[in-house]
Amino acid sequence: MSVTTADPTRLAAIRVQQAGRDRQKPISPAELARRIVRNYRITPAIELISDVISDAITQPGRRYVITTPPRTGKSVLVSRVGVVDALRRNPNAQIILASYSDELAQDHSREARAMIAEHSALLGYRLSPDKTAVGRWRVDGHAGGLLAGGINSGATGFGADLLLVDDPVKDQTEADSAAHRRRVINEFRSTLMSRVHPGGSVVLVMTRWHPDDLAGTLLRDEPDVWTHVNIPAVAEAGIPDALGRAPGVVMTSALGYTAAEFAAIRRSVGERAWYSLYQGVPAAPEGGLIKRDWLDQWRLPAAPTAPTKTVVGVDPADSGSGDSCGIVAASMTREGVVAVIADVSAPMTSDQWARAAVDLAVDVGASEIAVEGFSARETYQRVVKDAIRRTATPHPIRVTTWPPKGSGRGGGDAMARSSALLQGLETGTTRIAGHLPDLEGAAVTWQAGQHQPDALAALVVAHDVLVHAIGQQWGFASPLDSERRMREGTITSMPGYLRRRIGG
């Protein structure tokens, strides 16, 4: 039966229900986006970014770097709805929005203004009629508003309770220009950051085309200040994933991309663009000096259960003020393979890294802590020994500095010191046990001429100590048995003299 007339009572109830929903204020930027942006879809990635934006809006002094694949809805959420929501919560907030060009920043500004004009009743504010320029406007009756422009356009006469930087670099060509990278970094630091009010928050959204781009510089120079929120299209070992997915899990795409479609995109755009645009890392994780394939090919499922020796290697902080510090544990298996089993590298003071090294040694059963001691050998050794005395260690732990005096090891630059480790990772005599995402990510993005990541420097120390410990032990081997075990894959290599066959 068809109904040709509406029930007035039912229509009245629907209107009351709708009015109630309209009066109910959105509790997050994502929820606001769902209300005011047609067909806006909240995925797990959007929900996480929404939490980040909400935290930056409501809490003082936040610093975030966000990297996600294109077409996820992040710019709509951050640079349009984020502006609208920040002013909804505080109509006196001053916001600066910067992009690589005036046109892009003003496009975001124009859309934000349109949202305010259409949904002023829901938002609880409206635009000031006398301050309505596309790139500079204010909230009616309040001090808050927006200044939008290119990153090189300046921000004279305008402060920021919230600084949003969305796409400060246009493309790969700009990113590959050292001069352009310097201009962007200098403009960000000298102009934009100088406009941030005390307690103001900063959110940077960008594609990581180059290791020394703006995001890379901030994360390297101020690791204890900036939080990196990376959401790769496909979770992969060695790539940070803020969603915490297992390797191989594809993100829920706002546009509905499947695993097969992401694979097709990867084939189409090439490896560098894939990892920069879709995975959030500035170099393909197959690696520069260290290849991703090496780590995956030789990976161990877990740490060895009965190692012959376990060492914690430390690349200490340069000062006592909380610099980046590398602390890595590795074990030698009975087959002579170095297994990298743990990484707790982080910014730490001298007391903190010494205690962290001791705690790790206790956790993994290490018999030695070896500290890289080029600059302050005796001081580092004393600091670690003091930490051991303050800890109830269940077994003796020897403290050494590396390289040993008079050994002739450790000479040359970081590349030279790492040569044995690189060879071991390539041939399988050094393997990652399980998954160590931060260490692996740092390893495969390390390029010649760059500062060596602290975790990798610590691994160089642990690896060298373990490899040279082999020479301190006697052992006997059957060439035929070793050949059999090599075929079975239980050992990864044999010296040439064991493989050589004698005729007759």
From TrEMBL:
Pfam families: Terminase_6N (PF03237). Gene3D superfamilies: P-loop containing nucleotide triphosphate hydrolases. Residues 396-415 are annotated as: Disordered. InterPro entries: P-loop_NTPase. It comes from the Bacteria. This is Terminase family protein. It comes from Gordonia amicalis.
